[in-house]
Amino acid sequence: MNVVRSVRRDGLSILIAVCLVMTGAVPTTAQPVLLDHMDQAVKFLKAASMSDAGESLVLPLPDEGPRADQDQPVQGLVDLAWQEGRLAYRKGSWLEAKRFFEKIVVDYPESPLVPAALAFAAESLLRERDAGGGRTEAIQLYKRLLRDYPASSNATRAAWRLGDLYREQGWLQEAQSYYEQAMAQGRDSFDGDRALLGLAYTFMAMRKWSDAEHAFSTLRKQATHELLAPYAAIGLAHALFRQQRLAEAQVLYELGYRRWSTFFRRDPLAIQRYAVTHAMVHRHRAARELLLLLYNLYPRHEFAPLALLYVADSLSGDSHALLAAFFYAAVPSLYPDSPYGTAATMRLASLYLEQKDRLGHDRLKLAVAAMAHDDSVLEINEATYVAMLREIAAREADNAVGVEALVHLGGYYEKSNDGPRALVLYKEAAQRADSADSPWATQAARRLSALLTPWLEEAINDQNDLLAVSLFHRYGGGAEQLLSSPALLLGVAEAHRRLGFATEAGRLYQQLTKGKDLRLLELALVGLGKSYLDQEDPLAARKVLERYRFQFQGGRYESEVLHLLVTAMRRQGDLEGAVRLCRQWLQHHSQEEGGDRAYMLRQLAEVLGALNRLDESATTYEMAIKQGQGSMDLFIAYAETLSRLNRHEQAIAAYQAALDHQPDRRRREWIHLRTALHWNALKHYDRATVALAEVGETDDPLFNRFVDSLKDTVRTARRLQMAKEGS
Fold first, then answer.
1. What does residue 338 show for φ and ψ, rounded to 5 degrees?
2. Dist CA 715 CA 261 (whole Å)
3. Which of 49, 152, 447, 508 is a Cys-bridge partner for 115, taking CB atoms 3.0 to 4.6 Å apart?
4. Which tens digit of pLDDT belongs to each residue from 368-385?
5. Do 117 and 104 contact (CB within 8 A), yes or no?
6. Cβ partners under 8 Å of residue 418, min gap 6
7. Is the CB of residue 582 less than 8 Å from the CB of residue 604?
């Protein structure tokens, strides 16, 4: 905290210095110190102006007061009470006025003055109790007036006044009901228009912006009383502003500012929103003038410190460093307990560090100003700057000011070429709780993406999956929204899948499936299907792969997806479904030749074998071999099926065809053993002996024992055969 106070004192010194040179201030070549561009400041300004807290009415709606209803002359004591009540009312003696008007209501119930007396009594109650304590009694008086004297000139006014009272208390449905009742009773009159105005503001309180727009627009077209015109115009501007239709709102704010200047200046919400409409189209000078007007008229308004902060930001953005420093220093000085004061202190320190070597002789002016404040030296150095930012980030960890401090700190380390430390700080700022809508969190995410993207791209291009995954989780926090490029996110997902992190890869692929880029969507669906298979979830994989075939018929990855889909169906246990898929595909691609047809034939053969439909399986294997794509594995699988059918000669021929593909030693040993078994079954013991001799000695003891056992069996059978032939 001491660091912050020290810098704040320095800020006041800079304020004095700027005052000394204000008239001679000229633009410098500095860039915006805190915001990379003014869009950040404008977004924050706009977000604050969109707050519902500012939607409450600042100005009371127009009301000319109760009507003195005297259609016929009244004399006697009742007239005396009436005159005394009116006199007290005009003097502001509300309790005395209320006593006279209630006397008329109680003592002279048949008098034609009773409706007006009820209205004046109700208003006297409301005026006497500004805190609202008299609202309940006033509401009862107006309801009595509306019930017992519906034809009086005060009845319609009573209806919209009831609407006002309920709206002020937040009872919006009741307010709407009474406003609509008044509109029904007072069509084409001031009362009807006044009720419509109240209804429009009730819709604003209900957040029904389009309904409010319609009500204000109708009032502007039909109102005949000039008193209502500025309310309708500015209200319509507010409704349009809340619907993000800023250009239309600006026209109406401009009308109010030019035509009803006094009225407009009485509404701080209109001033700030008019300034926002200028800022959104980069008319920063006009926005500054309006925000300074807001500050000068309403220095205690909750928006005033933000208004000064924006003025300072925009001056910095327009390269008026000294003027910016003046306003940055003013915010913590005038609003020491405001979070904007802390933000301004940070920005002032940043501005000073950036400008101190560019100001030349102006540094002397700063030093003189510091001496005027009994400060021997004005020197915000890098060490105190970093300490201040760290202190603020820790102290304001739960709000946007803390996020801003982290962004400043990250920017400092980025300029110091300490990329890893900057990334960590940007990551923390982007992921701070409850800061998703903060412009500073957005700024941090943007800088994080800008710094991280080149590193990730290099790692992915070099196929360094471990580095890519490490960067993504260490600095990106596993947050895919921080990556600006969907193609980069795809590369990160592929790296996860290749390293075996199927669950994380699947999550990233799912994010990509929500995009509109069809090329990336194809790849994402294929990758997601593979990830589900890696997670042993064939049902989910099947759904994804079927979606691909439906959405991308004839797509670039149709062949790969077909293979994966058959695999998913087989793992799912849907063998009959796999048979149907294979046969349908083969039927529709009967003239096709190449790897896909051979693959589908082999898959069909294997599935038929798993279903014990061995004859069909063997026939399908033969068709696959005839495709000219016969491989060693295909011949071995075919031979095994023939073995199960006891077609020994054909099986031996298939094993021999497999040997022609030069298998490795282990497979070769296995093929010779299987061949020996078939020769033994055919009682060709000499050939079985030759096949066993081809097996030789292996490095698998169990395999060797089986071979030795078979050799003994063959020798025994051969001796018996020879003995039988000799006898």
1. -90, 140
2. 119
3. 152
4. 344 334 343 345 678 888
5. yes
6. none
7. yes
Tell me the C-alpha to C-alpha distance, in Å, between residue 311 and each of 46, 54, 292, 329: 14, 20, 8, 12
SS3 377: coil
Residue 614: predicted pLDDT: 84
The residues, any chain, with a CB within 8 Å of residue 585's CB and separated by 6 or more, are 562, 600
How far is it, in rounded angstroms, from Cα 294 to Cα 304?
Answer: 7
For residue 249, name the pLDDT band (cuts at 50, 70, 90).
Answer: very high
With contact defined as beta carbons under 8 Å apart, do 259 and 231 qualify?
no
What is the rounded CA–CA span in Å between residue 177 and residue 186?
14
Structure tokens at 132: 């609202």
Q: 66, 161 in Cβ contact below 8 A?
A: no
Predicted confidence (pLDDT) at residue 315 exceeds the cutoff of 50: yes
What DSSP string runs through 132-199?
A: STTHHHHHHHHHHHHHH-TTSTTHHHHHHHHHHHHHHTT-HHHHHHHHHHHHHHSTTSHHHHHHHHHH
Residue type, 155: A
d(CA 412, CA 420) in angstroms, rounded, equals 12
- Cα separation, 211 vs 209, in Å, equals 5
CA distances from 215 to 239, 267, 407 (A): 10, 20, 44
Give the CA-trace dihedral at 493, 496, 498, 501, to 10 degrees. -130
- The pLDDT score that the predictor gives to residue 698 is 76
End-to-end CA distance of the chain: 115
Q: Yes or no: say if 535 and 568 are a contact pair by the CB < 8 Å rule.
A: no
User: Is residue 106 classed as helix, strand or coil in its secondary structure?
Assistant: helix
Q: What is the separation of C-alpha 138 from the centre of its chain, rounded to a whole number of angstroms? A: 47
DSSP characters over 507-568: HHHHHHTTSS-HHHHHHHHHHHHHHHHHTT-HHHHHHHHHHHHHHSTT-TTHHHHHHHHHHH
Mean pLDDT score across all residues of the chain = 80
pTM equals 0.67
Eight-state DSSP code of residue 627 = I
Paired tokens of 69: 């209803």
Amino acid identity of residue 353, one-letter, is L
pLDDT band at 486 (very low <50, low <70, confident <90, very high): confident
What DSSP character marks residue 629?
A: I
Biggest distance spanned by C-alpha atoms of the chain: 160
User: From CA 129, how far away is CA 135, in angstroms rounded?
Assistant: 8
Ramachandran bin of 651, using left for φ above 0, alpha for ψ from -120 to 50, beta for the remaining angles: alpha
- The mean per-residue pLDDT over the stretch 61-68 comes to 86
Take residue 720 and report the two structure tokens written for it.
């018996």
CB atoms within 10 A of CB 459: 21
The tens digit of pLDDT for each residue in 652-696 reads 888 888 888 888 888 888 888 888 888 888 888 788 788 778 877
For 375-379, which contacts have Cβ atoms below 8 Å and span 24 or more sequence positions? 375/9, 375/10, 375/13, 378/10, 378/13, 378/14
In the DSSP assignment, the letter for residue 481 is G
Distance CA 646, CA 623 (A): 20
CB atoms within 10 A of CB 382: 10
3-state helix, strand, coil in the chain (%, to 5): 75, 0, 25
Distance separating alpha carbons of residues 102 and 702, to the nearest angstrom: 115
Judge contact between 25 and 320, C-beta under 8 A.
yes
**pLDDT for position 399:** 78
For 431-444, give the secondary structure using H, E and C: CCCCCCCCHHHHHH
Q: Copy the structure tokens of residue 79.
A: 């007239």
Rounded to whole angstroms, the Cα distance separating 663 from 694 reads: 14
- As given in the structure block, the two tokens for residue 81 are 């009470």
Which of helix, strand or coil describes residue 661?
A: coil
Average pLDDT over residues 474-490: 73
Q: Which of 290, 328, 362, 366 is nearest to 26 (CA)?
A: 362
Return the residue matching tokens 């349009």: 240
